Amino acid sequence: MEWTKPEIKVEPPGPKSQAFIKRDSEIMSKSLSRASELVGKAAHGVFVQDLDDNVFLDFGAGIAVAGVGHTHKKVVDAIKRQAEQLIFANSLDYYTVPQVDYAERLVNIAPGNFKKRVFFTNSGSESVDGAIKCAKYYNRKMGRGGYYGFGFLGGFHGRTMGAVSFTTTGKGARKSFWPMYAGNVIVPYADCYHCYFGQRYPECGLFCLDYITDVLFEKAYDADDVAFFLLEPVQGAGGYIVPPTEWLQKLQKFANEQGISFMVDEVQSGFARTGEWFACQHFNIEPDVMMVSKAMAAGLPCGAFISRAEMQDWWSGAHEGTLNGSPVILAAASAVLDIMEEEDLRANAKKQGAYLKKRWKEFQEKHPEVGDVRGVGLMVGVEFVKDPETREPDAKLRNNLIKQAFKKGLLLLGAGKNSLRLCPPLIIQEEHVDTAMEIVESVWKKIK
Ligand SMILES: Cc1ncc(COP(=O)(O)O)c(C=O)c1O
Questions:
Q1: Quick check: 1 pLDDT over 80?
Q2: Which of 40, 202, 256, 442 shows its CA 20 to 30 Å from the CA of 331?
Q3: Residue 405 in 3-state DSSP?
Q4: Model-level pTM?
Protein backbone atom coordinates (compact mmCIF):
# COMPACT_ATOMS: atom_id res chain seq x y z
CA MET A 1 0.00 0.00 0.00
CA GLU A 2 1.50 3.33 -1.09
CA TRP A 3 0.11 6.30 0.78
CA THR A 4 1.05 9.80 -0.34
CA LYS A 5 -0.80 11.93 2.18
CA PRO A 6 -2.73 11.68 5.42
CA GLU A 7 -6.34 10.61 5.12
CA ILE A 8 -8.88 10.85 7.91
CA LYS A 9 -11.97 8.69 7.26
CA VAL A 10 -13.47 8.91 10.73
CA GLU A 11 -12.41 11.29 13.53
CA PRO A 12 -9.68 9.50 15.46
CA PRO A 13 -9.88 7.56 17.62
CA GLY A 14 -12.64 5.92 15.54
CA PRO A 15 -14.96 3.19 16.88
CA LYS A 16 -12.61 0.25 16.25
CA SER A 17 -9.71 2.08 17.88
CA GLN A 18 -11.84 3.11 20.85
CA ALA A 19 -12.99 -0.47 21.43
CA PHE A 20 -9.41 -1.67 21.27
CA ILE A 21 -8.14 1.03 23.65
CA LYS A 22 -10.76 -0.18 26.14
CA ARG A 23 -9.42 -3.75 25.90
CA ASP A 24 -5.88 -2.48 26.32
CA SER A 25 -6.83 -0.46 29.39
CA GLU A 26 -8.12 -3.64 31.07
CA ILE A 27 -5.01 -5.73 30.67
CA MET A 28 -1.88 -3.72 29.98
CA SER A 29 0.28 -2.13 32.64
CA LYS A 30 -0.90 1.34 33.53
CA SER A 31 2.69 2.53 33.41
CA LEU A 32 2.56 2.77 29.61
CA SER A 33 2.17 6.42 28.59
CA ARG A 34 0.64 6.68 25.14
CA ALA A 35 1.35 9.90 23.21
CA SER A 36 -1.89 9.60 21.23
CA GLU A 37 -4.95 7.41 20.86
CA LEU A 38 -3.61 5.67 17.80
CA VAL A 39 -3.90 1.93 17.40
CA GLY A 40 -1.43 0.97 14.70
CA LYS A 41 -2.56 -1.52 12.08
CA ALA A 42 0.06 -0.92 9.40
CA ALA A 43 2.87 1.48 8.63
CA HIS A 44 4.84 2.07 5.46
CA GLY A 45 7.39 4.74 4.68
CA VAL A 46 6.38 7.93 6.50
CA PHE A 47 2.75 6.91 7.06
CA VAL A 48 0.91 4.94 9.74
CA GLN A 49 -2.57 3.49 9.42
CA ASP A 50 -4.89 2.96 12.37
CA LEU A 51 -7.56 0.32 13.02
CA ASP A 52 -10.22 2.57 11.48
CA ASP A 53 -8.13 2.93 8.31
CA ASN A 54 -7.16 6.54 8.98
CA VAL A 55 -3.74 7.33 7.58
CA PHE A 56 -1.35 9.59 9.51
CA LEU A 57 1.83 11.38 8.50
CA ASP A 58 4.40 10.30 11.06
CA PHE A 59 6.56 13.08 12.47
CA GLY A 60 7.62 11.02 15.48
CA ALA A 61 8.83 7.76 13.91
CA GLY A 62 8.21 5.97 17.21
CA ILE A 63 10.67 8.40 18.85
CA ALA A 64 13.25 8.36 16.08
CA VAL A 65 13.13 4.58 15.58
CA ALA A 66 11.82 4.36 12.01
CA GLY A 67 14.86 6.13 10.58
CA VAL A 68 14.67 4.33 7.25
CA GLY A 69 10.89 4.58 7.31
CA HIS A 70 8.39 1.91 8.28
CA THR A 71 8.62 -1.61 6.80
CA HIS A 72 11.35 -0.74 4.31
CA LYS A 73 11.42 -3.59 1.77
CA LYS A 74 15.13 -4.21 2.24
CA VAL A 75 14.71 -4.56 6.00
CA VAL A 76 11.77 -6.92 5.59
CA ASP A 77 13.69 -9.01 3.04
CA ALA A 78 16.76 -9.19 5.29
CA ILE A 79 14.62 -10.35 8.21
CA LYS A 80 12.93 -13.04 6.09
CA ARG A 81 16.20 -14.26 4.62
CA GLN A 82 17.93 -14.54 7.97
CA ALA A 83 14.88 -16.04 9.72
CA GLU A 84 14.80 -18.85 7.17
CA GLN A 85 18.45 -19.59 7.80
CA LEU A 86 19.17 -19.08 11.52
CA ILE A 87 16.88 -17.30 13.97
CA PHE A 88 18.81 -17.79 17.14
CA ALA A 89 22.11 -18.92 18.50
CA ASN A 90 22.83 -18.14 22.12
CA SER A 91 25.99 -16.05 22.07
CA LEU A 92 26.85 -17.47 25.46
CA ASP A 93 27.28 -20.78 23.67
CA TYR A 94 28.17 -20.16 20.02
CA TYR A 95 29.55 -17.67 17.55
CA THR A 96 27.31 -16.16 14.86
CA VAL A 97 28.29 -14.41 11.66
CA PRO A 98 25.81 -11.44 11.67
CA GLN A 99 27.25 -10.24 15.01
CA VAL A 100 30.78 -9.84 13.73
CA ASP A 101 29.68 -8.61 10.30
CA TYR A 102 27.67 -5.87 11.93
CA ALA A 103 30.13 -5.04 14.73
CA GLU A 104 32.86 -4.46 12.13
CA ARG A 105 30.63 -1.97 10.31
CA LEU A 106 29.53 -0.27 13.52
CA VAL A 107 33.04 0.43 14.82
CA ASN A 108 33.95 1.89 11.45
CA ILE A 109 31.24 4.53 11.56
CA ALA A 110 31.49 5.20 15.31
CA PRO A 111 33.50 8.30 16.29
CA GLY A 112 37.05 7.88 17.57
CA ASN A 113 40.12 6.75 15.73
CA PHE A 114 41.04 4.00 18.16
CA LYS A 115 40.41 0.29 18.56
CA LYS A 116 36.92 -0.44 19.83
CA ARG A 117 34.85 -3.37 21.07
CA VAL A 118 31.10 -3.90 20.84
CA PHE A 119 28.50 -5.42 23.14
CA PHE A 120 24.99 -6.02 21.73
CA THR A 121 21.88 -5.42 23.82
CA ASN A 122 18.11 -5.50 23.37
CA SER A 123 17.28 -1.86 24.18
CA GLY A 124 18.60 1.59 24.94
CA SER A 125 18.23 1.14 28.69
CA GLU A 126 20.13 -2.11 28.57
CA SER A 127 22.91 -0.42 26.58
CA VAL A 128 23.17 2.25 29.29
CA ASP A 129 23.23 -0.29 32.12
CA GLY A 130 25.94 -2.29 30.39
CA ALA A 131 27.98 0.83 29.70
CA ILE A 132 27.81 1.79 33.38
CA LYS A 133 29.25 -1.61 34.33
CA CYS A 134 31.92 -1.23 31.68
CA ALA A 135 33.03 2.18 33.01
CA LYS A 136 33.05 0.93 36.60
CA TYR A 137 35.10 -2.09 35.63
CA TYR A 138 37.61 0.04 33.76
CA ASN A 139 37.91 2.64 36.46
CA ARG A 140 38.78 -0.02 39.00
CA LYS A 141 41.13 -1.75 36.61
CA MET A 142 42.99 1.57 36.46
CA GLY A 143 43.30 1.45 40.25
CA ARG A 144 40.78 4.19 40.97
CA GLY A 145 37.76 4.42 43.29
CA GLY A 146 35.19 4.46 40.52
CA TYR A 147 32.24 4.98 42.83
CA TYR A 148 30.45 8.02 41.45
CA GLY A 149 28.81 8.50 38.06
CA PHE A 150 27.71 11.94 36.91
CA GLY A 151 24.49 12.42 34.96
CA PHE A 152 23.03 15.67 33.65
CA LEU A 153 19.74 17.37 34.53
CA GLY A 154 17.05 16.82 31.92
CA GLY A 155 18.80 13.70 30.66
CA PHE A 156 16.87 10.60 29.63
CA HIS A 157 18.67 7.28 29.65
CA GLY A 158 15.91 4.72 30.16
CA ARG A 159 13.97 2.84 32.78
CA THR A 160 16.11 -0.03 34.04
CA MET A 161 17.69 0.59 37.43
CA GLY A 162 21.05 1.84 36.20
CA ALA A 163 19.60 3.95 33.41
CA VAL A 164 16.76 5.39 35.47
CA SER A 165 19.22 6.52 38.12
CA PHE A 166 20.43 9.08 35.59
CA THR A 167 17.03 9.93 34.10
CA THR A 168 15.89 13.35 35.24
CA THR A 169 13.39 14.50 32.64
CA GLY A 170 10.80 14.51 35.41
CA LYS A 171 10.39 13.26 38.97
CA GLY A 172 8.00 10.51 37.86
CA ALA A 173 10.81 8.41 36.42
CA ARG A 174 12.54 7.84 39.77
CA LYS A 175 9.81 8.53 42.34
CA SER A 176 9.28 5.58 44.69
CA PHE A 177 12.01 3.47 43.10
CA TRP A 178 14.83 4.25 45.50
CA PRO A 179 17.53 3.29 46.11
CA MET A 180 19.07 4.33 42.79
CA TYR A 181 22.51 3.38 41.48
CA ALA A 182 24.80 4.09 44.39
CA GLY A 183 26.87 7.19 43.75
CA ASN A 184 24.66 8.79 41.10
CA VAL A 185 25.28 12.51 41.00
CA ILE A 186 23.14 14.82 38.85
CA VAL A 187 24.63 18.09 37.63
CA PRO A 188 23.31 20.85 35.32
CA TYR A 189 23.29 20.41 31.54
CA ALA A 190 23.99 23.37 29.28
CA ASP A 191 20.32 24.16 28.63
CA CYS A 192 20.89 27.71 27.43
CA TYR A 193 17.25 28.62 26.70
CA HIS A 194 16.35 27.88 30.33
CA CYS A 195 19.71 28.20 32.05
CA TYR A 196 19.71 26.51 35.45
CA PHE A 197 21.73 29.47 36.76
CA GLY A 198 19.56 32.17 35.16
CA GLN A 199 22.38 33.24 32.84
CA ARG A 200 22.56 33.91 29.10
CA TYR A 201 25.03 32.26 26.71
CA PRO A 202 27.70 33.29 25.66
CA GLU A 203 27.96 36.12 28.24
CA CYS A 204 27.85 33.45 30.98
CA GLY A 205 31.31 32.21 29.99
CA LEU A 206 30.03 28.63 30.50
CA PHE A 207 29.33 29.12 34.18
CA CYS A 208 27.56 25.73 34.28
CA LEU A 209 30.79 24.03 33.25
CA ASP A 210 32.85 25.92 35.83
CA TYR A 211 30.32 24.89 38.45
CA ILE A 212 31.18 21.24 37.75
CA THR A 213 34.92 21.51 37.20
CA ASP A 214 35.85 24.31 39.61
CA VAL A 215 33.21 24.01 42.33
CA LEU A 216 32.06 20.40 42.61
CA PHE A 217 35.45 18.87 41.82
CA GLU A 218 37.10 21.34 44.18
CA LYS A 219 34.80 20.98 47.17
CA ALA A 220 32.88 17.72 46.91
CA TYR A 221 34.31 15.07 44.59
CA ASP A 222 37.78 13.73 44.04
CA ALA A 223 38.20 12.85 40.35
CA ASP A 224 39.70 9.49 41.33
CA ASP A 225 36.35 8.49 42.80
CA VAL A 226 34.40 9.34 39.63
CA ALA A 227 34.05 6.55 37.08
CA PHE A 228 32.11 8.33 34.34
CA PHE A 229 30.15 11.23 32.94
CA LEU A 230 26.98 10.07 31.17
CA LEU A 231 25.17 12.45 28.85
CA GLU A 232 23.25 12.91 25.62
CA PRO A 233 25.03 15.06 23.03
CA VAL A 234 21.62 16.55 22.22
CA GLN A 235 19.04 15.97 24.96
CA GLY A 236 16.10 14.02 23.57
CA ALA A 237 13.18 13.55 25.95
CA GLY A 238 14.42 16.63 27.80
CA GLY A 239 13.25 18.79 24.89
CA TYR A 240 15.71 18.48 21.99
CA ILE A 241 18.20 20.71 23.72
CA VAL A 242 21.39 21.44 21.81
CA PRO A 243 24.29 22.47 24.06
CA PRO A 244 27.08 24.79 22.87
CA THR A 245 29.84 22.87 21.10
CA GLU A 246 32.48 24.34 23.38
CA TRP A 247 30.62 23.09 26.44
CA LEU A 248 30.72 19.51 25.19
CA GLN A 249 34.32 19.76 24.06
CA LYS A 250 35.54 21.30 27.32
CA LEU A 251 33.60 18.80 29.36
CA GLN A 252 35.18 15.96 27.45
CA LYS A 253 38.64 17.50 27.79
CA PHE A 254 38.15 17.76 31.56
CA ALA A 255 36.97 14.13 31.75
CA ASN A 256 39.95 12.93 29.71
CA GLU A 257 42.42 14.86 31.84
CA GLN A 258 40.91 13.49 35.03
CA GLY A 259 40.72 9.86 33.83
CA ILE A 260 36.90 9.88 33.91
CA SER A 261 35.19 7.85 31.19
CA PHE A 262 33.16 10.08 28.87
CA MET A 263 30.00 8.14 28.00
CA VAL A 264 27.71 9.50 25.34
CA ASP A 265 24.18 8.25 24.94
CA GLU A 266 23.33 8.26 21.21
CA VAL A 267 20.28 6.06 21.63
CA GLN A 268 18.02 8.75 20.15
CA SER A 269 20.49 10.90 18.22
CA GLY A 270 22.38 8.08 16.49
CA PHE A 271 22.20 6.54 13.00
CA ALA A 272 22.06 9.57 10.71
CA ARG A 273 19.35 11.35 12.66
CA THR A 274 21.40 14.54 12.97
CA GLY A 275 22.91 14.38 9.47
CA GLU A 276 26.04 12.60 10.70
CA TRP A 277 26.19 8.97 11.71
CA PHE A 278 26.28 10.13 15.32
CA ALA A 279 25.61 13.51 16.92
CA CYS A 280 29.08 13.42 18.52
CA GLN A 281 30.51 13.99 15.05
CA HIS A 282 28.83 17.41 14.86
CA PHE A 283 30.60 18.51 17.97
CA ASN A 284 33.90 16.80 17.25
CA ILE A 285 33.83 14.79 20.41
CA GLU A 286 35.04 11.22 20.75
CA PRO A 287 33.37 9.30 23.54
CA ASP A 288 35.13 6.54 25.42
CA VAL A 289 31.82 4.69 25.44
CA MET A 290 28.85 5.25 23.16
CA MET A 291 25.39 3.76 23.58
CA VAL A 292 23.00 3.15 20.67
CA SER A 293 19.61 1.57 19.99
CA LYS A 294 16.31 2.91 18.55
CA ALA A 295 16.89 3.36 14.76
CA MET A 296 19.58 0.67 14.71
CA ALA A 297 17.36 -2.18 13.48
CA ALA A 298 14.34 -0.21 12.25
CA GLY A 299 12.19 -1.18 15.21
CA LEU A 300 13.43 -4.62 16.20
CA PRO A 301 14.74 -4.74 19.79
CA CYS A 302 18.38 -3.95 19.38
CA GLY A 303 21.09 -1.86 20.99
CA ALA A 304 24.78 -1.79 21.68
CA PHE A 305 27.50 -0.10 23.57
CA ILE A 306 30.77 0.50 21.86
CA SER A 307 33.85 1.37 23.88
CA ARG A 308 37.56 1.77 23.66
CA ALA A 309 38.80 -1.80 23.29
CA GLU A 310 40.64 -1.85 26.62
CA MET A 311 37.42 -1.03 28.47
CA GLN A 312 35.95 -4.37 27.39
CA ASP A 313 38.99 -6.45 28.15
CA TRP A 314 37.00 -7.85 31.04
CA TRP A 315 36.76 -11.44 32.09
CA SER A 316 34.61 -14.01 30.31
CA GLY A 317 31.10 -13.82 31.80
CA ALA A 318 31.51 -10.25 33.10
CA HIS A 319 28.51 -9.17 31.06
CA GLU A 320 26.23 -11.33 28.89
CA GLY A 321 22.61 -11.92 27.87
CA THR A 322 20.74 -14.84 26.34
CA LEU A 323 18.96 -13.05 23.49
CA ASN A 324 21.57 -10.39 22.81
CA GLY A 325 22.97 -10.10 19.30
CA SER A 326 20.14 -11.94 17.54
CA PRO A 327 21.15 -12.92 14.00
CA VAL A 328 17.77 -11.84 12.60
CA ILE A 329 17.91 -8.47 14.29
CA LEU A 330 21.49 -7.81 13.24
CA ALA A 331 20.67 -8.77 9.66
CA ALA A 332 17.99 -6.07 9.83
CA ALA A 333 20.53 -3.66 11.36
CA SER A 334 22.93 -4.33 8.48
CA ALA A 335 20.12 -3.63 6.02
CA VAL A 336 19.49 -0.32 7.83
CA LEU A 337 23.11 0.72 7.28
CA ASP A 338 22.89 -0.32 3.61
CA ILE A 339 19.76 1.78 3.13
CA MET A 340 21.22 4.76 4.94
CA GLU A 341 24.24 4.64 2.65
CA GLU A 342 22.39 3.89 -0.60
CA GLU A 343 19.71 6.53 -0.02
CA ASP A 344 22.19 8.99 1.45
CA LEU A 345 19.99 9.58 4.46
CA ARG A 346 22.61 11.64 6.27
CA ALA A 347 22.41 14.20 3.49
CA ASN A 348 18.63 14.03 3.49
CA ALA A 349 18.48 14.53 7.27
CA LYS A 350 20.58 17.68 6.88
CA LYS A 351 18.55 18.96 3.94
CA GLN A 352 15.07 18.24 5.28
CA GLY A 353 16.08 19.25 8.80
CA ALA A 354 17.16 22.66 7.52
CA TYR A 355 13.90 23.00 5.60
CA LEU A 356 11.81 21.93 8.60
CA LYS A 357 13.59 24.45 10.81
CA LYS A 358 13.15 27.19 8.20
CA ARG A 359 9.40 26.53 8.00
CA TRP A 360 9.08 26.66 11.79
CA LYS A 361 11.17 29.81 12.02
CA GLU A 362 8.84 31.48 9.50
CA PHE A 363 5.91 30.31 11.62
CA GLN A 364 7.64 31.72 14.70
CA GLU A 365 7.85 35.18 13.09
CA LYS A 366 4.06 35.26 12.90
CA HIS A 367 3.42 33.59 16.23
CA PRO A 368 5.39 34.75 19.28
CA GLU A 369 4.08 31.75 21.24
CA VAL A 370 6.82 29.79 19.47
CA GLY A 371 9.67 30.68 21.78
CA ASP A 372 12.48 28.63 20.30
CA VAL A 373 13.18 26.55 17.21
CA ARG A 374 16.36 24.51 17.49
CA GLY A 375 17.98 21.25 16.56
CA VAL A 376 20.49 19.38 14.46
CA GLY A 377 19.47 17.56 11.28
CA LEU A 378 16.09 15.90 11.68
CA MET A 379 16.14 16.28 15.43
CA VAL A 380 14.17 19.52 15.61
CA GLY A 381 12.73 20.97 18.81
CA VAL A 382 10.01 23.62 18.90
CA GLU A 383 9.27 25.22 22.25
CA PHE A 384 6.01 26.99 23.17
CA VAL A 385 5.94 29.86 25.65
CA LYS A 386 3.40 32.23 27.16
CA ASP A 387 5.74 35.17 26.59
CA PRO A 388 8.91 35.17 24.50
CA GLU A 389 10.60 37.57 26.93
CA THR A 390 10.02 35.63 30.15
CA ARG A 391 10.11 32.28 28.29
CA GLU A 392 7.41 30.97 30.61
CA PRO A 393 6.54 27.46 29.35
CA ASP A 394 3.15 26.86 27.73
CA ALA A 395 2.57 23.14 28.04
CA LYS A 396 -1.16 23.47 27.35
CA LEU A 397 -0.58 25.00 23.92
CA ARG A 398 1.90 22.25 22.99
CA ASN A 399 -0.45 19.51 24.21
CA ASN A 400 -3.44 20.97 22.35
CA LEU A 401 -1.42 21.19 19.18
CA ILE A 402 -0.46 17.51 19.40
CA LYS A 403 -4.09 16.56 20.03
CA GLN A 404 -5.61 18.61 17.23
CA ALA A 405 -2.91 17.70 14.71
CA PHE A 406 -3.66 14.04 15.45
CA LYS A 407 -7.29 14.57 14.51
CA LYS A 408 -6.13 15.95 11.16
CA GLY A 409 -3.73 13.09 10.47
CA LEU A 410 -0.39 14.36 11.74
CA LEU A 411 1.53 12.51 14.46
CA LEU A 412 3.59 14.79 16.69
CA LEU A 413 5.50 13.98 19.86
CA GLY A 414 6.18 16.14 22.89
CA ALA A 415 9.46 16.43 24.77
CA GLY A 416 10.34 18.36 27.88
CA LYS A 417 7.58 20.34 29.55
CA ASN A 418 6.46 22.36 26.55
CA SER A 419 8.33 21.37 23.39
CA LEU A 420 7.64 19.33 20.31
CA ARG A 421 10.25 16.85 19.20
CA LEU A 422 10.09 16.57 15.45
CA CYS A 423 11.90 13.40 14.45
CA PRO A 424 10.26 12.05 11.30
CA PRO A 425 11.69 9.16 9.30
CA LEU A 426 14.89 10.28 7.58
CA ILE A 427 13.32 9.56 4.20
CA ILE A 428 10.86 12.48 4.36
CA GLN A 429 10.75 14.97 1.53
CA GLU A 430 9.86 18.66 1.34
CA GLU A 431 6.27 17.85 0.40
CA HIS A 432 5.83 16.00 3.71
CA VAL A 433 7.19 18.97 5.65
CA ASP A 434 4.77 21.21 3.72
CA THR A 435 1.84 18.92 4.53
CA ALA A 436 2.80 18.90 8.23
CA MET A 437 3.02 22.70 8.31
CA GLU A 438 -0.35 23.02 6.54
CA ILE A 439 -1.93 20.90 9.26
CA VAL A 440 -0.23 22.91 12.03
CA GLU A 441 -1.46 26.14 10.47
CA SER A 442 -4.99 24.78 10.02
CA VAL A 443 -5.38 23.84 13.70
CA TRP A 444 -3.47 26.78 15.19
CA LYS A 445 -6.45 29.19 15.48
CA LYS A 446 -8.49 26.54 17.18
CA ILE A 447 -5.96 25.82 19.90
CA LYS A 448 -5.03 29.34 20.94
C1 LIG B 1 18.74 9.05 24.88
C2 LIG B 1 18.02 7.81 25.32
N3 LIG B 1 18.68 6.89 26.04
C4 LIG B 1 18.09 5.76 26.44
C5 LIG B 1 16.77 5.50 26.15
C6 LIG B 1 16.13 4.23 26.62
O7 LIG B 1 15.91 3.40 25.54
P8 LIG B 1 14.85 2.19 25.65
O9 LIG B 1 13.51 2.83 25.73
O10 LIG B 1 15.07 1.42 24.39
O11 LIG B 1 15.19 1.41 26.84
C12 LIG B 1 16.03 6.43 25.41
C13 LIG B 1 14.63 6.19 25.09
O14 LIG B 1 13.89 7.07 24.71
C15 LIG B 1 16.68 7.61 24.97
O16 LIG B 1 16.03 8.54 24.27
A1: no
A2: 40
A3: helix
A4: 0.97
